[in-house]
Amino acid sequence: MSSVLERLWRIIEANRASANESFSRDFLREFEAWEERLRHKMRLDDDFEPSYKNYRTYEPPPKREPTRDEKIAGYYANLEIPYGADLETVKKAYRKLMKQYHPDKFSGDPEKQKTATELAKRLNEAYQALEKHLQSRST
Predict the structure, then answer these.
(1) Concatenated DSSP letters for 79-90?
(2) Residue 80 pLDDT
(3) What percent of the chain shows pLDDT beyond 70?
(4) Closest Cα partner for 1 from 132, 112, 9, 84?
(5) How far is it, in rounded angstroms, from Cα 112 to Cα 108?
(6) What is the DSSP string of 14-63?
(7) What sign does the CA torsion over 24, 30, 34, 35 have?
(8) pTM greater than 0.70 (yes/no)
(9) pLDDT at site 31
């Protein structure tokens, strides 16, 4: 508290010279009286400061982490992106993975094609769910 008063005091001192030239004597007398009261207050604050610290100060409540929906987190994991990524990131990850694991790329090997088809279904499900989730949050 005294640091605020000290800064105020420095501002007053800096402007006092110009006040002497431009204001009337009545104003200067009032200003000097106010200045004396401020000096007195600063002396009192030096004594007041230690006892003031004993009072409880306001502390804001701790920030809570947003609740994490595990189903949505699973969809993000399927697309191999961090939880909470935006729609643009979801689209890019989906396109990249579909390009890599599209069932048509494995038409020569039926076992790999079956696995790729299952994976493509999961990627489609994850993309559609995340797209719906993110669009509902933005509106």
Answers:
(1) TT--TT--HHHH
(2) 93
(3) 71
(4) 9
(5) 9
(6) HHHHHHHHHS-HHHHHHHHHHHHHHHHHHHHHHHHHHHHTTSPPP-PPPP
(7) positive
(8) no
(9) 76
What is the token pair recorded at 19?
Answer: 């006040």
Contact predicate 116/101, CB 8 Å: yes
Whether 119 and 102 have beta carbons less than 8 Å apart is answered as: no
Judge whether 91 and 81 are in contact, CB under 8 Å.
Answer: no
Q: Over its length of 139 residues, how does the chain's per-residue pLDDT go in tens digits?
A: 466 667 766 777 666 655 555 556 677 777 788 878 877 776 766 555 555 555 556 677 777 766 788 899 999 999 999 998 999 999 999 999 999 999 999 989 999 999 999 999 999 999 999 999 999 987 7
106, two tokens: 């494995």
